């Protein structure tokens, strides 16, 4: 949610910043902007509404000289997407420029005070208030930029990752964070800052994850200094190795990141289970669980918190854990949990699921659960993100960078890790049979091959999708393990095609939604050959009896379903609890091709951003 990037070093900053913005664009694409300082003390600021390409056009032919600069791609919170509200924002005297990711909650009070001191504002943003405050403090206290930023941040309530530069000092960037991510890339005589590692990849593999409430002084003529905003206490420089390569950030011959990520799933699932299943399928080796056996043995209850797609994975996790561990499991939207006075004790395990590891609501839920004494376990993808750093233990899904805004490979990775976790904890608790572990572990082990087989549906789905570009509504129905998969299928369609879609437990439709069925309302019905198959056949019949159009996802060779449904997408048979992984692939492809036929920008759907770092 908003991406920021900064550079100071011996190279021209422009190319690094523009490439960084392209890599961060998945975090927001309402507008983009850049500020560069020329050595003779000129601050050039460029902004453009819309995508980064517009900014590139805007700057083309202009003066973009400078070895220091900051840049931003915006997901609007305060104020509509336009040039005025785009970052960087500059202070009233034009000397200071800032880029910001986050929200300043007390900006109105600060703004009123600044207006009383003679400040005027051109944008509707909270960020402009912060840069004016910095200028005000700097002039009033006759202090350095670092001191002014630090003092201003002490007055701010809210979340921020910021980078600040000053026209007359082309040697320094000040960066700071609280509840929004910021990474420093340490190169040879050059330093990078960015909201995530993607702009830094290829330049250096040495990174420092700035911690909450830390401020950094990046001075080209002096060693990097990081300290606490509150008391200026110096922090240890914890330099870590960045394990990401440029190829992972490119489309690799695919038209879009989303399609690449869908087709990566055979491999990403391999990476996800690597080293986690013993050769004879008898043991699940999930270190985060094994190192905390007591917690899993003595737990009274598990609460899973997440948002969006990760919340759908959580619903599948609930069934898995209840079945394998005989423990009550509750699933909560992180945004509801954090304000819902949750009853949490030190006998509870709270599992937080998040692809980005930065989702503001999930992070807040983690912090709340910890404050109540729960053992908090994270299931994340982005290594070193805020959630894994705030949890007691956890497991990475290891599916590689997910850049398409619509989550695909992260979902299947999350469900895979939840399956491993349920089996591993079930073994420790002695609540799962050895044969069950073996059957499911073997199924997981074979999953990459199975997914490869499911990809053969690609052409069929592509052709089928064309039929549905007319649709204004879709229904997704499933039962048991596949009720959450139906929710996920509906979310995928909504977010990239803008067709309204509802996921529903199939048996519930007769309590209301069946009234919507007519020949213009396609229903995607998930009907694998599982324990609820006969029941779902009745649901298919109910839809057909009312003139509905049914696309059924069922197992290979199911001739009976072919007689009833209008289209059948046939998938290989797997153990029941693994069907969501297999089923989600045709659902992703269906949403993808419908959106493409409708001409939508699937990697950058309107109004969305990949990483939701604001409330
Ligand atoms: O990074 P997270 O998993 O915490 O993100 C949660 C949601 O914002 C995310 O899953 C969102 O719903 C996706 N756009 C869905 O495709």
Kindly describe this structure.
This protein is of the alpha/beta class. Helix content is about 35%, strand content about 25%. It is built from 20 helices and 24 strands. Helix 10 links the parallel strand 15 and strand 16. The N and C termini lie close together (about 10 Å). The model has no long low-confidence stretch (mean pLDDT about 95). The site of 5-amino-5-deoxy-1-O-phosphono-D-mannitol has 16 residues, from helix 10 and helix 17.
Write the layout of secondary structure elements.
Layout: E1 3-8, H1 13-24, E2 31-38, E3 42-49, H2 52-59, E4 68-74, E5 89-90, E6 96-104, H3 107-116, H4 126-141, H5 145-155, E7 158-166, E8 169-178, E9 183-186, E10 191-194, E11 206-209, E12 214-219, E13 225-228, E14 240-241, H6 257-263, H7 265-273, H8 287-290, H9 293-298, E15 301-306, H10 308-325, E16 329-333, H11 334-337, E17 348-354, H12 360-371, E18 375-380, H13 386-390, E19 393-396, H14 409-429, H15 434-454, H16 458-466, E20 473-478, H17 482-497, E21 500-505, E22 522-527, H18 533-545, E23 549-555, H19 559-564, E24 567-571, H20 579-597
Parallel strand pairs: 15-16, 15-17, 17-18, 18-19, 20-21, 20-22, 22-23, 23-24
Antiparallel strand pairs: 1-4, 1-10, 2-3, 2-4, 5-6, 6-7, 7-8, 8-12, 9-10, 9-11, 11-14, 12-13
5-amino-5-deoxy-1-O-phosphono-D-mannitol (M6R) binds next to helix 10 and helix 17.
């Amino acid at each position: 949610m908003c991406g920021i990037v900064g550079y100071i070093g011996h190279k021209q900053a422009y190319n690094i910043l523009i490439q960084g913005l392209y890599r961060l664009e998945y975090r927001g694409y309402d507008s983009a902007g850049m500020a560069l300082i020329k050595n003779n003390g000129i601050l050039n600021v460029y902004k453009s509404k819309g995508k980064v390409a517009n900014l590139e056009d805007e700057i083309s032919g202009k003066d973009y000289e400078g070895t220091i600069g900051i840049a931003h791609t915006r997901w609007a919170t305060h104020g509509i997407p336009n040039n005025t509200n785009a970052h960087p924002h500059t202070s009233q005297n034009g000397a200071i420029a800032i880029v910001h990711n986050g929200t300043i909650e007390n900006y109105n009070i600060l703004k009123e005070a600044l207006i009383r001191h003679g400040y005027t504002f051109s944008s509707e943003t909270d960020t402009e208030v912060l840069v004016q405050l910095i200028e005000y403090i700097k002039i009033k206290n006759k202090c350095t930029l670092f001191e002014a930023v630090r003092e201003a941040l002490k007055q701010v309530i809210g979340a921020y990752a910021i980078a600040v530069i000053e026209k007359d000092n082309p040697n320094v960037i000040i960066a700071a964070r609280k509840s929004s991510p910021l990474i420093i890339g340490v190169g040879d005589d050059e330093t990078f800052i960015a909201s995530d590692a993607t702009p830094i990849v290829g330049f250096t593999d040495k990174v420092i994850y700035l911690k909450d409430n830390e401020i950094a002084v990046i001075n080209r003529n002096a060693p990097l200094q990081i300290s606490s905003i509150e008391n200026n206490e110096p922090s240890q420089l914890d330099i870590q190795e960045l394990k990401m390569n440029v190829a992972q950030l490119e489309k690799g011959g695919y038209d879009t990141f989303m399609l690449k990520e869908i087709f990566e799933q055979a491999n990403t699932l391999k990476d996800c289970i690597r080293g986690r299943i013993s050769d004879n399928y008898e043991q699940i080796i999930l270190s985060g669980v094994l190192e905390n056996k007591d917690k899993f043995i003595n737990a009274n209850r598990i609460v899973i918190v997440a948002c969006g797609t990760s919340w759908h994975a959580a619903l599948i996790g609930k069934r898995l854990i209840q079945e394998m561990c005989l423990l009550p499991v509750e699933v909560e939207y992180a945004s509801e949990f954090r304000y819902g006075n949750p009853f949490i004790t030190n006998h509870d395990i709270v599992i937080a699921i998040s692809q980005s590891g930065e989702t503001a609501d999930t992070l807040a839920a983690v912090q709340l659960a910890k404050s109540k004494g729960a053992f908090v376990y994270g299931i994340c993808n982005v290594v070193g993100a805020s959630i894994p750093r705030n949890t007691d233990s956890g497991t990475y899904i290891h599916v590689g960078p997910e850049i398409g805004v619509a989550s695909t490979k992260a979902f299947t990775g999350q469900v895979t890790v939840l399956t491993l976790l349920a089996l591993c904890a079930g073994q420790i608790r002695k609540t799962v049979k050895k044969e069950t572990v073996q059957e499911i572990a073997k199924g997981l082990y074979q999953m990459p091959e199975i997914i490869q087989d499911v990809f053969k549906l690609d052409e069929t789905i592509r052709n089928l999708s064309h039929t549905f570009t007319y649709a204004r509504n879709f229904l997704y129905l499933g039962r048991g393990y596949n009720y959450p998969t139906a929710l996920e299928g509906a979310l995928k369609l909504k977010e990239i095609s803008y067709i309204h879609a509802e996921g529903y437990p199939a048996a519930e439709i007769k309590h209301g939604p069946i009234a919507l069925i007519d020949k213009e309302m396609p229903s995607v019905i998930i009907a694998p050959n599982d324990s609820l198959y006969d029941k779902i056949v009745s649901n298919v019949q109910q839809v057909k009896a009312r003139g509905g159009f049914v696309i059924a996802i069922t197992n290979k060779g199911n001739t009976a379903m072919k007689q009833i449904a209008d289209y059948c997408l046939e998938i290989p048979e797997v153990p029941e609890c693994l069907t969501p992984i297999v089923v989600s692939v045709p659902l992703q492809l269906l949403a993808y091709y419908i959106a493409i036929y409708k001409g939508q920008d699937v990697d950058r759907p309107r109004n969305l951003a990949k990483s939701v770092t604001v409330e």
